[in-house]
Amino acid sequence: MSLADLSATSLSGAVGRREVSCVEVVADHLERIDALDPLVNAVVSRRPSEVLLAEAAQADTELARGEHRGWLHGLPVAVKDLNDVRGLPTSRGFFRDAPPAAHDSLVAARMRAVGAIVVGKTNTPEFGLGSHTYNAVFGTTLNAWDQSRTAGGSSGGAAVAVALRMLPVADGSDFFGSLRNPTGWNNVYGLRPSLGRVPHVGDELWLSQGGVDGPVARTAADLAALFGTLAGPDVRDPLSTGPARGPRGDLAELVAPDLTGQRVGWLGDLGGYLPVEPEVMRVCERALHGFEDLGMEVLPRALPAHGRFRGPDDLWSAWLPWRHLLAGSALEPVHAVPALRARMKPEARYEVEGLLGHDGQPPLSAAAVMASSRLRSDLYRAVLSLFDDVDHLVLPTAQVMPFDAALDWPREVAGRAMSSYHRWMEVCALGTLVGAPVLALPAGFSADGLPMGLQVIGRPRDDEALLGLAAAWETVTDHHRALPPLLRGLTGGTS
Questions:
Q1: pTM above 0.85, yes or no
Q2: Would you say residue 60 has pLDDT above 90?
């Protein structure tokens, strides 16, 4: 069995005890990337192997001197291609000749600070838009379980690289399911943290509360370990929150809690509001028995009205103006350059046009943004009322099973036409809009062997409870031990 088949926390322990060398760990992962990445296209802008092995040798030298930088010491990672890595281009799936970044993003810096060796970037769709990882710079990332299907997105490269053991863990990010869709579709774990738990240190600090960075991992322990590295306040983000970070990000043991007597609210398709493929519902409803096996009670629940928010029919009204404001504003400088605008995919132009106005539609007004925010505020209060009765809320991670990778996005779901490139992902809107932590759990497989996930919305700010739930989930399910077909015969059959 290759060292690449071990979990990140297992590798960390073996390296720390000097049972294996950092060179061996990096070499085995590079061998896996060489073997499988040509089939799935998940890792891009890869650094030269000789440079990476030299850095691994230096990490071994540090260990020999008694210097241990943290739990990722000598382990390889790749950073999502929306985040900067010093010395590597940030293409964002659009800029073909992007210059090397001068500085690390917060995500890259925090992983490097605990010893990680950055091998390259993970592929993302153009500007991270849409849950299908394809772009004109690097091409399409394919599903770890079926290379004719989408990997999801925008963290598609990260999810596939972790699922195929090309990386032990990876960072992802999530605005509208960008971490939840691909982890569900590739049978790995993901966590969209509470707002502020992983700092945002971008250009605009006060309004950009949609996208958050979070961990992708094969096991609950790995997920918790990477979350512990990424999370923690930073003075550069005035809205960041949570406990202060330790100096080295050492591992803390993750213990599966006793969840007996806790209650899970099953939201399903929001009372028929969301079109959802029957196979998605079949897999997810079967997966609910896992909560019962943990001694939890599963209860059907509806999304209630509160104030201006009248129920699920108002979800899209709360969502779309806010999305146009944030995504459109970020893309407007690119859209303003005619040569670049001509290269933008329709999904990107849609967001800018929703901000600036198009085809007779007026520009987005401050009044419309404020009305959307008030609606979102009452949605938050509605969700808080559900937590008076239950401990977690559960929905599918997607409304469709992984679709044909040759498509750009599903135009129809369960017989209902989709009005935009992301309307079919609306199942992810609730968790984003309320800013609560959302855990993506492996839920099982369709009749033809495709993965699906469950998203578990936790109480605001209680990310740690979701990590405990993930650890408990592994005691009653074995989905995380299943191997993608590309790995069968290469490994010993476990994670």
A1: yes
A2: yes
Q: Which residues contact 126 (CB under 8 A, 6 or more apart)?
A: 92, 93, 94, 134, 135, 136, 344, 345, 347, 348
CATH fold of the domain at 3-301+389-487 = Amidase signature (AS) enzymes (3.90.1300)
Active-site choice (21, 80, 194, 345): 80
What pLDDT, on a 0 to 100 scale, did the predictor assign at position 66? 97
Told to judge if 154 belongs to the known catalytic residues of this protein, a careful annotator would answer: yes
Tokens describing residue 227? 């979350």
Residues 240-282: tens digit of each pLDDT: 998 876 655 667 789 999 999 999 999 999 999 999 999 999 9
Rounded CA gap, 307 and 354, in Å? 27
Considering the chain, what is the average pLDDT of its residues? 96
Query: How many C-beta atoms surround the C-beta of residue 366 within 10 A?
Result: 8
Torsions phi, psi for 214 (to 5 deg): -160, 175
Q: Is the pLDDT of residue 288 over 90?
A: yes
Residue 257, both tokens: 């809690």
Q: Work out the average pLDDT over 139-163.
A: 98
The radius of gyration of the chain from alpha carbons, rounded to an integer in Å, stands at 21
**Position 36, amino acid:** L
Question: Residue 26 — very low, low, confident or very high, per pLDDT cuts 50/70/90?
Answer: very high
Question: What pLDDT, on a 0 to 100 scale, did the predictor assign at position 83?
Answer: 98
Domain ranges of the chain: 3-301+389-487, 312-377
Closest by Cα among 322, 437, 434, 461 to 379: 434
How many angstroms separate the CA atoms of 193 and 173, rounded? 10
- Cα–Cα distance for residue pair 414/148, rounded to 1 Å: 21
Is the pLDDT reported for residue 212 higher than 80? yes
- Annotated catalytic residue, options 7, 173, 178, 372: 178
Catalytic residue among 154, 173, 194, 240: 154
Strand 392-396, strand 451-457: pairing: antiparallel
Distance between the two ends of the chain, CA-based, in angstroms?
11
346's tokens: 């329709």
* Spatial CA neighbour of 78 closest among 45, 100, 51: 45
Q: Quote the CA–CA distance of 469 and 450 in Å, as a whole number.
A: 24
